[in-house]
Amino acid sequence: MEEGVVNERANDDLRGRFHGLTAALRESTKSPLEASLIFCQEFCQALVDYAGRWKTDEDPLPLLEVYTVAILSFANAASCLSSECENVPLLLEKLTLSCAELVLLLPQHIPGALWEEFRSSMKLAHSLLQESGSAQLRPLFALAQQDGIWSNTTLSSILSNTIPQTEQGSGSHTQFIARCFHVFHMHYLTFPLSSFLFFSSRVS
What we know:
The chain has one domain (about 5-200). It is built from nine helices and no strands. The protein has helices spanning about 5-25, 30-50, 60-75, 85-105, 110-130, 140-145, 155-160, 170-185, 195-200.
């Protein structure tokens, strides 16, 4: 079986698993807080189960597809998650930062269809999250609107250490990219799946 078919089936399975978690969240008879805690825990476990099948140092593209599915699925569930659950924004922050770290591993030339899917998914996810009162995905959404990650002027400036004075220390977008690059530099080719395992154990 071709690798692309395997990846597509795995992503369909992951969508189905996230859909099941969202359905269980909506139909739960538990308190909104408890149901949200359970959702976050099981969401993390599902992400680790599927993302752990690929290695970023060999090919980061399948993981980009996994994160695209995960972020959009989380956004679809956002309206059902309790605002009292502190793990909800924490999980979204980890998703956003980890996805951005992964994007830094991508080759310069990304298949157009894959990048377009990522771009449209981040746009929809950002819109859904905004409806739920969250703007946490905005920096990643901004990155996704570029023709490709390496066409981003702020990132190029960071790589060449020539950030314009007007951009230094200002703007959440610039700070977000700088933070991602710093983490990437400190943990080169190390995908932070362990952070999701740790997060999952914390909310159990």
